[in-house]
Amino acid sequence: MRAAASEGVVFMIPNLSSKSFDTILSARSPDQPPSWLQIYVNPSKEVVLAQIRACETQGVQALAITVDSAVPGKRERDQRNKIAVTLGAAKLAEAAASGTSARKPGNYANRDPGLNWEDIKWFQAQTKLPLIIKGVQCGEDAVLAAKLNCQAIILSNHGGRNLDTSRSGIEVLPEVVEALKAEGLFGKIEIYVDGGVRRGTDILKAIALGANAVGLGKPAVYSMSAYGEKGIVRMLQILKEELTQAMQLVGVSKLKVNYFTTFQ
Ligand SMILES: Cc1cc2nc3c(=O)[nH]c(=O)nc-3n(C[C@H](O)[C@H](O)[C@H](O)COP(=O)(O)O)c2cc1C
Fold this sequence. Notes:
By secondary structure, this protein is α/β, with parallel strands linked by helices. It is 44% helix and 12% strand. It has 10 helices and 7 strands. The chain has helices at residues 2-7, 21-25, 45-58, 76-80, 89-98, 117-126, 139-147, 169-182, 200-208, 218-250; strands spanning 11-13, 35-39, 62-66, 131-136, 152-155, 190-194, 213-215. A 7-stranded parallel beta sheet has the order 1-2-3-4-5-6-7. Helix 9 crosses helix 10. The chain is globular, with a radius of gyration of 18 Å. The structure holds flavin mononucleotide (FMN). Flavin mononucleotide is lined by residues 14-16, 38, 66, 134, 156, 158-159, 161, 194-197, 215-219, 221.
């Protein structure tokens, strides 16, 4: 959160995190750029409503609903490390209520495996917070999200962590742009891309192909693990330097990017 403020980028608070929602938010600075909550849709709508109300009360500016991992992928390293544990019914209910990651094989205690577009309509009936659909993988779903008036989509394969061989965000981007253009919906919904963004040139390529912004996962984790807050600040600075240099080298002086304009 602090590094995001220093470098003027959005911080998306994870639903499952080592620090609590309130602790993370307490690190916001007065000039903090928007903070969004990444949300897994809990089987209990009461739990989801409590999360929505907490975001509204705390001034979180958008909800990013993760739709690409309503059920777990085959995570062999997790299996080898025996992360998947079978819990009794009482423990599972407790885990679901607290939003923790405890799970039984083939399911997640904190996620509704039946997640579908009706749930997105349910969110819209409950809150005026902008909705971002995280984990879109094809043009048809991008069009559906735009038709449902979602504010943004994140083209993502969950950092290659859930469905083996699923396409990366950048691979899906041209199809999504084409599908939105064909329906006259390009520009109506913001498009973000994540997965494998490691260089300024990756950002420039995503924007050139029609994205409004990119997301970073592992680079933040690695920088944080090695150097803490300073590491994330430096990582973001390097990316900005590389982006500027790449723009100079291809003769671009300005990016017409409206990233997170919807949320200001
Ligand atoms: C350790 C780790 C945990 C993650 N946890 C979540 C999560 O709880 N919810 C979610 O929507 N995405 C999660 N992701 C995926 C990221 O939000 C993002 O889509 C992905 O990491 C982007 O790809 P990259 O790591 O190549 O930058 C996680 C990624 C990593 C590396």
